[in-house]
Structures are given as C-alpha cells and as structure tokens.
Amino acid sequence: MLRSQCTDDLVRQGINLLLPPTDQSFGHRTLFFRDPDGNLLEVFADI
C-alpha cells in the first residue's frame, strides 16, 4: 500500500479508510473515507 503523511495522519486519528491510497489512470492518487455524519470524503494529490 502506498502511504503518505496524510494517510498516516488520518489513520493515527482513528479514521477508517475505505480503500488504501490508489493511483488513478488520470494522474491522481486518491483515498476515501467517511466523516462522522457518513458523508463520503476524498483526498487527492496530483502524481
């Protein structure tokens, strides 16, 4: 699994990632998780 400071910080805070960070074919690395209200959130970075 590709790890980043962002990923490590989220996991340390107890955030359950829905998928590990994933490199997308369109040039982004993405990860998804849900906030306490159940909203789906995405963090992405250009790669």
- CATH topology term: 2,3-Dihydroxybiphenyl 1,2-Dioxygenase, domain 1
Q: How much of the sequence is in beta strands?
A: 35-45%
Helix content: 10-25%
Low-confidence stretches: none
How many distinct helices? 1
> What is the typical, i.e. mean, pLDDT?
90
Task: Provide the descriptors you would attach to this structure in a database record.
single chain; three-stranded antiparallel β-sheet; 2,3-Dihydroxybiphenyl 1,2-Dioxygenase, domain 1; 17% helix; 3 strands
Describe the structure in brief.
The protein is an alpha+beta fold and about 45 residues long.
What is this structure's SSE topology?
Elements: H1 5-12, E1 17-23, E2 28-34, E3 40-46
Antiparallel strand pairs: 1-2, 2-3
Describe the structure.
With 47 residues, the chain is an alpha+beta fold. Helices cover 17% and strands 45% of the residues. The chain has one helix and three strands; from the N terminus they run αβββ. The protein has one helix at residues 5-12; strands at 17-23, 28-34, 40-46. The chain has a three-stranded antiparallel sheet, covered by helices on one side. It is globular, with a radius of gyration of 11 Å.
